[in-house]
Amino acid sequence: MTIATATAPQTLFEKIWERHKIVERDDGQTLLYIDRHLIHDGSRHAFEVLAERGLKLRRPERTFATPDHYVPTASRDVSTIADPEARGMVESIALNAAKHGVIIFDLGDPRQGIVHVVGPEQGLTQPGLTLVCGDSHTSTHGALGALAFGIGASEVGHVLATQSLWQQKPRTLRIAVEGRLPQGVFAKDIILAIIAKIGAAGAVGHAIEYAGSAIRSLGMEGRLTVCNMSIEAGGRAGMIAPDDTTFAYVAGRPYAPKGKEWDKALAYWRQLPSDPGARFDREVTLAAGELSPMVTWGTSPEHAAPISGRVPDPAQAPDAETRAGWSQALAYMGLKPGTPLEHIAIDRVFIGSCTNSRIEDLRAAAKVVAGKKAVVPAWAVPGSGLVKAQAEAEGLDRVFKAAGFEWREAGCSMCVGMNGDLVAAGERCASTSNRNFAGRQGKGARTHLLSPAMAAAAALSGRLSDVRKLLAGGS
Amino acid sequence: MEKFQRVQATAVPIDSANVDTDQIIPARFLRKPRKAGTALFLFHDLRFNDDGSEKASFVLNRPAFRGARILVAERNFGCGSSRENAVYALYDYGFRAVIAPSFGDIFYNNCFKNGLLPIVLPAAAAAALRAALNAKPGAQVTVDLAAQRVVGPDGTRLSFEIDPFRKHCLLEGVDEIGFTLGFDKEITAFEKNLT
Fold it and tell me: Would the pLDDT of A150 be above 50?
C-alpha cells in the first residue's frame, strides 16, 4: 500500500478519503469503502433493515460488536435488566452477531465495554482506516489517525449490506493547540475550551484535524478524549496525525498487524500525516499555556468556562439569540447570573463514558481522591472490562472505594442513562461525560461537564472546585 | 421510502438554537419499536407535564400550530446523538420538511433516508420566516423540492440549495441500499485491491 505522489500537498483526511473512494459521482457524492464497522446494542433497527430485504451481511469479518448502552453496571448478568425492552436490546445484539457470524465482545467477556473504548483497545482502530459506528461519538477513533464518524441506523444498515457509504466530502478544519499545558489542565479542558471558542456548530460540515505541540504531547487516552468531543463542536470526524505515540499504542494489540504485516502497515502509516503546506478550509489556533480547568454551566457543551469564572449574565450576551439561549439554560440549570462557578454545589459525581473512562482518566481521578473522602455519592465506571482489570491490578479500585466511590462494571452508564443509571430530576451532577443537554442524564437532571481530575475534586468538596488548588497543596 | 411531494401546510417556529436530538426524543424512548408509534415521543419532555398532560406553552401544543407539517428552526438543529429515532418521531408526527440555518450533520443525513427534507436557509431568512410565523400563528408555508423553493406566508420566495443526488432520491423515493447494490461490481473490484 502506497500513496501515489500527488501534485498538491494533501491533508491526513484527504489521503484517507482518496484511498477509499469506490465511485465518485459528478454531483459530488462519493461511495466510500468502510474498513471497520463497530456495532452495539442500539443496532437492532439496522438488522431489521437487512432482514426486511432478505440481505446478508456483506463483510462479517469487518464488523465487530459489543453491547454498551443498555448493559447493567451493577453486575454482568443480563437477567438483572428489569425492563424487558432494554434487556431485549442487549440480547438482540448477541443474537444478530451469532446469526451473521460477527465477532462479539459480549457481556461477561472481559473485552466488553463502551464501543469507543473497545475499538482502540483491541487494535481494531488503526491509522488510515475508515471506521463507522451507529453512534455520534465514533469521532473518538480519529485519535489514531483513522477517518471515523458516526452514522444513523439507516446508514448502519447500508454498511452492513454494502460495506460502503455515500458521502459528501466535508471541508477541513485544522485546530492547532500550541505550547505546554499548565498543571491541572487536561485533554478534556482542551476540547471544552475549543468548543467554547468555536461553538457547538463551529465545525458543522467539517472534518477536524487537531494539531500543534500540545496535542502531540498528549498520550493516546488524552487524544481519544479530544477527538471524542469533535461532534460536540458539530464535526462528525476529528483526527490526529499518527506518530510514535500512536504506533506504540497499537503495537501488540489483538487485532493489530503482526510481523511483516506490521512493517508494511507502519510504512504506510508514516506517510499519512498532512503534508507540509497542505491547505485546510479553515484554521483555528489556541495557546495551551492560557488554558484553565474548564466546567460547563449550561445545556450545550459550548456553555463552558474556566473554573475561576462566573455564571454569565444573559443581559451581557452578544446578541438576542445567545441571550435567549443563556436564559433558557440558566432556568433549566437553576443558576443565577454572576455566581462564581466554584460556589455551585453538586449532588453527585460520575466518572466514566466514552470521553473519560480509560486508564489514564481513572489514574488522574484516583490521584486526587487518594486518602480522602467524597462528600457526595460518586461513581467510577471503567470503559471496558480490560480497563477495569488494569485499574484493579494497579489498586485504583481500592483508592476509589476507600474514598467512598462506587466501583462499577463497564458500560455507557450515567452518560445517557439508557440502562437505568440515572441522575434524579433537579439533581446536579459533576460528570466526565460529553453532553450537558437538558435531560441527558435523566429527566430534569443538571449536568456539569469537566475532566476526571476536576470531577474527583468536586466529589471531595461537594461543589465545583479548582483541582489546581488540590494538586498544589497535595501530598 | 415514500416519494417526496410538494408540501403546503402550517409551519411551526422553534426559536431556540442547538435543539439536540435528546430534546427531539429522549433516550428512554429509543428502545421502543417504531411501529409502536413514535409521534407521542416527539419533544416529549418539552411537550408534556409529568402527569402526561400537555404543556400549554409549548409551541406544538398551541391550537394554531396543530397539524403543522413544516418546522422552522434555529442554528444547529438536530445536533448531538446519531439517534435516527429523532427523524422517525418528526416524520411520524407529520413533519415533511425542517428548515434551519444549519443542522447537526448526522441528523441532516438521517433525514434523507426517511423522506424528511432538511432545508438550509441563511440565518436572516430563517429568522424572518420564524418571525412571520410567530406574528401570524397557523400561517401556511409551501415547500417545493422540485423547484428548490420555499414560499413564506407573505408570498416571499426563497430558493435553497440541495445535493442533486439526494434531491433525486427524495423525489423518486429511491431505496439507497437497493441502489448501492447495483455497484456490487465496483465494490468487489475495490475489495480485491485491498491488502
Answer: yes
